[in-house]
């Protein structure tokens, strides 16, 4: 059966030299060191910001820094100098703005409006690829580049940072067949490879990842254009053979389009993938037995991964936007959760060589179990569940299932462990489901009652709103953990959805406090992720307007705890028309199909006073995957063309 888818020599001026840091102040050094090590490869950007602060506030410090750099001082020596300068500034109570900014960065509540600066030298990639976990050829897979190092770098980025969350193809089989270079393979194709490379560019800051260096809107554009050319020859409607690699490529294009909001093509690619899977008989069909003599082991594991990975994508997308899932059932058995070697490790290339357990098979199975609950939640929230259970009772039952799923997670997934990102994201996914269940489009209803014996003891007596806020705060903690361990520059796009959902959950509260530490932590994390894509910039702009409409800007300006970047972002409404560094984030918020709600409303933020969680979800959906209702019209137009 074939299923065709990286001791300064200059002395300080005596009159300006920072005072030696006394032993009693060792906590200052420790705090700075903790921040530098906690931000992964973002510490270079931190140093850049600190250079700017020192340069603008003290010319002597700037001169010393230049001399240190010219004399080849190490990054650690430069950081040590900055620690001393900070201690001196504290003692003299000068440069308060620079101190505020440093403290804000260290505490993780400063915001950024620029993505990490792209790196212009190919030699960086040559260096990185010496440690790339996957070495693969550019030819015959893509005409965009013949650079094996670049392709190896990008494939490694995708398989490390993106792949584990959904895992809708088998990475080992894909790598093996890509290395063989056989373009007619069922497990690798030019269509699949170019779609994967287009996605991988999202995680890279190197010139080669852009069509226009530094412009996030052009990341992966050349690879995407080639993938789209292959798409034309793989149209499902033309009646040709469906290769497994083509189905997987459609899912990769769904991921890519959902970051750019490309004319509703997110839903289009997802729905095409579902139709292809139905045609292959692996979803929404009677059970399919795969253990036949005609099917290779590579095919068996690949079909399982694809079918169940598609199920996860479908339930995540539709539950995110309170729509009914389209995949009702999966027709093949799941991969055994104990199949893989439990010693399999995950390494955060290219930021570190320190590995930690992957637990990929356990993760995948738990994610599938969660997907069943997510499917039922999507049906409940859409009110298409045909059961006779009262909708609110159904929500209670689903909440109980969620709580039980979390309670049954393996001990190795405990938050106290140093987890790979996909394991942290799994808990984020759980908490987004809790929030969506508690705060559906029909309003916040009583979910738990004190008389309900089935209610988990730690939640008994809390309202649905209380539970949603608790989950939002947990997402804040999880996002800070991701940032501390790996930096947010490599976070999967699902983290952007989860963080944004948590922000609006807090923002929707009657007792919303703009100085809430969890809210500021989430805002900081969101600002970093939002820099990386056009979708993120648009969503962050709408978030900025929604916060300003809450009329708490004066409290931010008066706070001594809030760094300057946050003050600028949440300036008072009377100042909201003044240009700021986020203005360009509104570039894509033009009228779409006559819908005024997508206009750039910067000139009248007060009009967003009623802009809440569900308004945000509608806009997020429209800006990313499109409107699902329009898929049917497009489908009919495409069918009539053949």
Automatic annotation (TrEMBL):
Residues 1-21, 553-579 are annotated as: Disordered. GO terms for biological process: DNA-templated transcription. Residues 156-336 form the Xylanolytic transcriptional activator regulatory domain. InterPro entries: Notoamide_regulator, XnlR_reg_dom. CDD domains: fungal_TF_MHR (cd12148). The keyword Signal does not apply. One of its GO terms (molecular function) is DNA binding. Keywords: Nucleus, Transcription, Transcription regulation. The keyword Transcription applies. This is Pathway-specific regulatory protein.
């Amino acid at each position: 059966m074939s299923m065709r888818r990286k001791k300064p020599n200059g002395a300080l001026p005596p009159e300006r030299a920072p005072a030696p840091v006394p032993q009693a102040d060792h906590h200052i050094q420790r705090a700075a060191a903790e921040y530098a090590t906690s931000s992964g490869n973002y510490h270079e950007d931190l140093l850049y910001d600190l250079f700017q602060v020192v340069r603008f506030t003290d010319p002597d410090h700037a001169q010393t820094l230049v001399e240190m750099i010219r004399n080849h001082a190490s990054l650690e020596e430069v950081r040590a100098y900055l620690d001393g300068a900070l201690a001196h500034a504290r003692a003299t109570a000068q440069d308060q703005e620079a101190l505020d900014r440093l403290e804000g960065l260290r505490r993780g509540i400063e915001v950024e409006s620029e993505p990490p600066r792209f790196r212009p030298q190919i030699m960086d990639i040559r260096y990185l690829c010496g440690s790339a976990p996957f070495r693969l050829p550019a030819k015959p897979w893509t005409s965009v580049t013949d650079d094996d190092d670049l392709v190896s770098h990008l494939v490694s980025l995708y398989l490390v940072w993106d792949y584990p969350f959904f895992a809708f193809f088998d990475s080992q089989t894909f790598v093996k067949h890509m290395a063989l270079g056989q373009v007619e393979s069922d497990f690798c194709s030019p269509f699949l490879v170019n779609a994967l490379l287009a996605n991988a560019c999202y995680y890279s800051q190197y010139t080669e990842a852009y069509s226009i260096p530094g412009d996030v809107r052009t990341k992966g554009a050349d690879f995407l254009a080639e993938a789209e050319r292959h798409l034309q020859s793989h149209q499902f409607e033309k009646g040709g053979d469906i290769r497994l690699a083509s189905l997987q490529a459609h899912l990769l294009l769904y991921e890519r389009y959902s970051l750019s909001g490309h004319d509703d093509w997110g839903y289009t690619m997802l729905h095409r993938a579902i139709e292809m899977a139905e045609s292959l008989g692996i979803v929404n069909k009677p059970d399919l037995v795969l253990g036949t003599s005609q099917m290779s082991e590579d095919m068996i594991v690949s079909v399982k991964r694809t079918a169940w990975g598609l199920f996860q994508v479908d339930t995540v997308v539709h539950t995110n936007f309170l729509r009914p899932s389209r995949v009702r059932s999966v027709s093949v058995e799941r991969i055994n959760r104990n199949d893989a070697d439990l010693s399999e490790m995950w390494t955060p290339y290219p930021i570190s060589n320190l590995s930690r357990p992957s637990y990929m098979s356990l993760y995948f199975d738990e994610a599938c179990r969660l997907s069943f609950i997510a499917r039922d939640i999507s049906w409940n929230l859409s009110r298409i569940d045909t059961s006779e259970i009262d909708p609110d009772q159904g929500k209670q039952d689903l909440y109980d299932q969620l709580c039980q799923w979390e309670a049954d997670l393996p001990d190795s997934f405990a938050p106290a462990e140093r987890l790979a990102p996909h394991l942290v994201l799994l808990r984020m996914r759980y908490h987004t489901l809790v929030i969506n269940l508690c705060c559906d489009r029909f309003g916040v209803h009583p979910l738990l009652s004190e008389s309900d014996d089935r209610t988990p003891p730690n939640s008994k007596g809390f309202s649905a709103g209380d539970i949603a806020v608790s989950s939002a705060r947990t997402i804040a903690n999880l996002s800070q953990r991701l940032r501390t361990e790996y930096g947010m520059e490599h976070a999967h796009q699902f983290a952007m959805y989860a963080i944004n959902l948590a922000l609006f959950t807090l923002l929707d509260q009657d007792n919303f406090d703009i100085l809430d530490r969890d809210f500021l932590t989430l805002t900081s994390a969101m600002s970093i992720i939002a820099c990386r894509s056009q979708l993120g910039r648009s969503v962050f702009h709408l978030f900025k307007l929604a916060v300003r409409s809450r009329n708490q800007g004066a409290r931010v300006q008066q706070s001594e705890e809030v760094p300057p970047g946050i003050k600028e972002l949440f300036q008072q409404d009377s100042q909201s028309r003044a240009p700021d560094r986020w203005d360009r984030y509104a570039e894509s918020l033009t009228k779409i199909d006559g819908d005024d709600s997508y206009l750039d409303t910067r000139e009248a933020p007060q009009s967003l006073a009623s802009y809440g969680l569900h308004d945000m979800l509608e806009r997020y959906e429209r800006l990313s995957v499109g409107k699902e209702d329009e898929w049917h019209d497009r489908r009919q137009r495409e069918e009539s063309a053949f």
